[in-house]
Design goal:
Helix content of chain A: 25-40%
Structural class of chain A: alpha/beta
Structural class of chain B: mainly alpha
Largest sheet of chain B: none
Strand content of chain B: under 5%
Largest sheet of chain A: 6 strands, mixed
CATH architecture of chain B: Orthogonal Bundle
CATH superfamily of the largest domain in chain A: P-loop containing nucleotide triphosphate hydrolases
Number of strands of chain B: 0
Strand order of the largest sheet of chain A: 6-7-8-3-9-10
Number of strands of chain A: 17
CATH architecture of the largest domain in chain A: 3-Layer(aba) Sandwich
Shape of chain A: elongated
Number of helices of chain A: 18
CATH superfamily of chain B: MetI-like
Helix content of chain B: over 70%
CATH topology of chain B: MetI-like fold
Oligomer: heterodimer
CATH topology of the largest domain in chain A: Rossmann fold
Distance between the termini of chain B: 52 Å
Strand content of chain A: 15-25%
Largest interface: A-B, 34 and 21 residues
CATH class of chain B: Mainly Alpha
Radius of gyration of chain B: 20 Å
Order of helices and strands of chain B: HHHHHHHHH
CATH class of the largest domain in chain A: Alpha Beta
Chain lengths: 374, 210
């Protein structure tokens, strides 16, 4: 099957009963994943998230309901062709232990009858893509790789035939936290390049928040919320959602607020002003400091009330100011700004553009109280 | 030394009977290995089939070997045919059971990944399942060949020939040397076959750890 770039996946009233169980594993689930979107399915174990994923590539057949990929009813497609058009990554990875890394990655291309002249460069390309040196890893066996390296190979194998859809079932669940963070970052980097439609299953809300465009929360087989990470944090009053999000949801929410949204204007002075002329501004400044700008509006430094009071008033501002450091840009997250404030034991941090032009400042109070959640 | 004299005197007969012994085993294994593989593979797909076949093969193996050969005589007479058929029935179980178990013991995530990527069942069988089960299958074949060496000795009772002939005739004539030569040759044959096949197994499994 030849899919176009990215695919819409649509589930309509999908229900799955397993034999011998009276309660459905998945209950009337309707969900749409837009082309190029990363949708994370999350919920407690047994909520039906893996079952949902496996119904999309028909490893499990739904009891009722319709699943469409790119407008086509998957029940009418050949399951083999359907699966070859979807990369599949699982927590246990499932590398073939008797095959080399290259042979593992070449699985789907070989199933599709690619020639070895076409497969070989593709394998090297994929190894480089997932950050493994082809020369070193091509001919190694899976047993000689670390967990993180194996999962990279697992991702490369899933991407081998460039499928427009990726199904990932807790892919980073079995590696240590540091490796997991690396793999998540690389996944985000790859996704920007590849723009796949991704359905990602996890039970880790932090992972979901980090990777998802939208998060679908499942509880006992039902979809209880399908929204952006930021919206979900805003609805943490719902006990089910609060349970998943955890105690630190207020802090997590800060990751989705950019300082540009909460920045406030600040008093500024030019470098040549004598200290005597800034006492008025300083007393009005909420953070107790003024910002020194050059004629282009670029930040040179800051002057605090205490510093100004300890110096004779005929001295010039640029002689006594603290040179500018500890700067952040408007697209920095409020979480990072907060970390910066705590680390420097400051009351506020200056926000400048990439070019250094002052936008304003963000203070501790603003981060805590000033954020508005849509 | 009577042992060596016997061997030198009867070298032609020894070679002939050893050849006959091996021919019996090889003929039986030529059927038994492919049949055991097929049954084992089928059993790995169907729990029901597995239960039935294992029960039947187990039943046959429970019958004492001499009795089984005896039971075959009314249909197949004496000599080579009933011996080979008895051997096939007996050597079936280890091959079949190990094939089935070798496949069953494959890490399920490997098979899930293979299916999830869209490999066809037949391709999964010969690209994934059989290669991964080979070490276990080889062990089954080894056990079955060693059993075959022993059973062929007993099959001499129903006139199939082979090295059992020496033991049988030796006992009948109270010729201790003849019994000893027959028994030693059969033992050495069993040990050699076991060692060679074990080596093949080791060589196979060491290919994987690179």
């Amino acid at each position: 099957m030849v899919f176009a770039e990215g695919q819409v996946i649509r589930l309509e009233g999908v229900t799955k009963f397993f034999s011998g169980r009276s309660v459905p594993a998945v209950d009337q689930l309707s969900l749409e994943i837009a082309s190029g979107e990363v949708c994370v399915l999350i919920g407690a174990s047994g909520c039906g998230k893996s079952t949902t994923l496996k119904m999309i590539n028909r490893l499990i057949e739904p009891s009722s309901g319709v699943i469409q990929v790119d407008g086509q009813d998957t029940a009418r497609l050949d399951p083999i062709e359907l699966r070859q058009g979807m990369g599949y990554v699982i927590q246990e990875i499932g590398l073939f232990p008797h095959m080399t890394i290259a042979e593992n990655i070449a699985t789907v291309p070989r199933e599709r009858g690619w020639t070895s002249e076409k497969i070989r460069p593709r394998v090297d390309e994929l190894l480089s893509l997932v950050g493994l040196d082809p020369g070193e890893f091509r001919d190694r066996m899976p047993a000689s790789l670390s967990g993180g390296q194996r999962q990279r190979v697992g991702v490369a194998r899933a991407l081998a035939a460039d499928p427009p859809v990726l199904l990932m079932d807790e892919p980073f669940g079995a590696v240590d936290p540091v490796t997991r963070a690396h793999l998540q970052n690389e996944f985000l980097r790859l996704q920007i390049q590849m723009n796949k439609t991704v359905l990602f299953v996890t039970h880790d809300m932090d992972e979901a928040m980090k990777l998802a465009d939208r998060i679908a929360i499942l509880h006992q087989g039902r979809l209880i919320l399908h929204a952006s990470p930021r919206k979900i944090l805003g609805q943490a009053s719902d006990p089910l959602i609060a349970d998943l999000v955890g105690e630190d949801q207020a802090l997590k929410r800060l990751r989705f607020v950019q300082v540009g949204e909460i920045v406030r204007r600040v008093p500024t002075v030019s470098p040549g002003t004598p200290l005597g002329g800034v006492h008025q501004l300083l007393s009005e400044s909420r953070s107790g400091q003024v910002y020194v700008l050059d004629s282009a509006g670029c930040l040179l430094g800051t002057l605090s009330r205490d510093r100004a009071a300890s110096q004779p008033s005929e001295r010039l501002v640029d002689e006594v100011m603290t040179p500018a450091d500890n700067l952040i840009t408007p697209n920095t997250s409020a979480f990072e700004a907060l970390c910066r404030i705590l680390r420097h034991e400051a009351s506020a941090v200056a926000v400048t553009t990439e070019a250094g032009v002052l936008v304003g400042e963000v203070s501790f109070e603003q981060i805590l109280w000033g954020q508005k959640i849509s | 030394m009577p042992f060596m004299d016997f061997v030198v005197d009867r070298i032609d007969q020894i070679l002939y009977l050893t050849g006959q012994h091996l021919a019996l085993i090889l003929s039986a294994m030529a059927v038994s290995i492919p049949l055991g593989l097929c049954l084992g593979i089928m059993a790995s797909y169907s729990r029901w089939f597995r239960a039935v076949v294992l029960y039947l093969v187990d039943l046959v193996t429970t019958i004492p070997s001499l009795a089984l050969f005896g039971l075959l005589i009314p249909w197949f007479g004496l000599g080579f045919p009933p011996a080979v058929i008895g051997l096939i029935l007996y050597t079936q179980l280890p091959v079949m059971r190990n094939t089935c178990e070798g496949i069953a013991s494959i890490d399920p995530s490997v098979l899930e990944a293979a299916r999830g990527m869209g490999m066809r069942e037949l391709r999964i069988l010969y690209r994934i399942k059989l290669p991964l089960a080979t070490a276990t299958i080889l062990a089954g074949i080894r056990v079955s060949v060693v059993i075959g060496v022993g059973l062929t000795t007993i099959a001499a009772y129903i006139g199939s020939g082979g090295l059992g002939e020496f033991i049988l005739r030796g006992i009948a004539r109270s010729d201790a040397t003849m019994v000893l030569v027959g028994a030693s040759l059969v033992s050495v044959l069993a040990i050699v076959v076991d060692t060679v096949l074990k080596r093949a197994e080791v060589r196979w499994s060491s290919r994987r750890a690179r």
